[in-house]
Amino acid sequence: MFRGAVGGTAVTALDRFLSRDAGSFRPSAIRAFAKLINDPNVISFAGGVPNPETFPADSIAEIAARVVRERRGVALQYGPTRGLPRLTEAIASICRGRGIECSAADILVTTGSQQALDLIAHAFLDPDDVVLVELPTYIGGTASFYARSARLIGVAQDDDGIVPESLDEAAARSHPKLVYTIPNFQNPSGRLMAQERRRQVLELAERHDFLVIEDDPYGELVYVEGADTTAMKSRDSSGRVLYLGSFSKVLAPGLRCGWIVAPPGMAAKLEIAKQAADLCSGMLDQSIVDEFIAAGELPGQIAKVRDFYRGKRGILIEALAEHFAGRATWTSADGGLFSFVTFPEGVDTGAKVEEAVKRGVAYIPGAPFFVDGSGANTMRLTFAKESDDNIREGVRRLASTFQF
Length: 404
Ligand SMILES: Cc1ncc(COP(=O)(O)O)c(C=O)c1O
Description:
Radius of gyration: 21 Å
Bound molecules: pyridoxal-5'-phosphate
CATH topology of the largest domain: Aspartate Aminotransferase, domain 2
Number of domains: 2
Number of helices: 14
Strand order of the largest sheet: 4-12-11-10-9-5-6
Helix content: 40-55%
Strand content: 15-25%
Distance between the termini: 49 Å
CATH class of the largest domain: Alpha Beta
């Protein structure tokens, strides 16, 4: 037996048994960073997870106890692959509120929207198929596509979202099967795609004949007036858009409850892929979410989560303006959990992580979010985790790390 390291993964003689797809697996570059930062003296802008203070723990505890006691035949039993029927009705109603014409029959509940990405990759991608992704994009998305041996090509993004000329050019050159986009307060950039751009992306989908994955876990986390988060799926007249939603950011990611809205034929295929993956998503998780919604608690919870993050976001943006004006640019994070900072060319945020941690602040370097190897001069900051004072102090520490 020999040991080496390829892409951070141990290699053993047994690797000869691995599938072609397993050879394409990519470990998460940002999880590796997250592990470095366990020191309580380090102010962390690095995580990508919701703040536990936003979780409605008392309600969840009460509902969990009740459904386990009173509905064990549902909450502790296998359930339908499509999802708990009343929950799929509720999700369809949520989606209609986002402008999407759909019914419960169009919904597939998934084990987080991460599973939705994996199921779509499984059902639609052959090795070497092309997926176009935003520059930058969500690493869990790229992980799912790489895991099916797809080829990923980046498409430029500006403050209004995907740049149509870049998408047009890349699609003409590479004939993609899928385009993956996160139009609402994207992870990692925090950007909101303009409605006109969404229309143009759909037009290009028609012209170049590709499908669109619209991943929308952050659309409810809005902090400003007038942000138009209407889903692309609402204009999907030819059934090209697979829309993904999630309760992770408004309720709790440990509940692992997400969904896909898909055209009927596709939903049926994805259902079969899901049967192979896990038979059904956790019925206790689904029962809790279902009861929470049925009790009418979701709108109030969303309002609370928005209020919780709105102030923190404001403090981060203010502190960035105070310390980095003229030295960097950053996205306004009008929603979601992230602001994305861009330094001048030549600055390497990856090379500065260690120094930053020594100075007591952590961030995620931007390069892992760019499939084309660019982005060395960028970083992702989340305002989700730290207290208001720590956010101010953390940006001060960042400013002392990035002096030029
Ligand atoms: C853009 C995006 N998509 C999907 C996910 C996965 O979310 P979940 O599986 O918890 O629904 C995340 C999580 O951070 C995300 O940022």
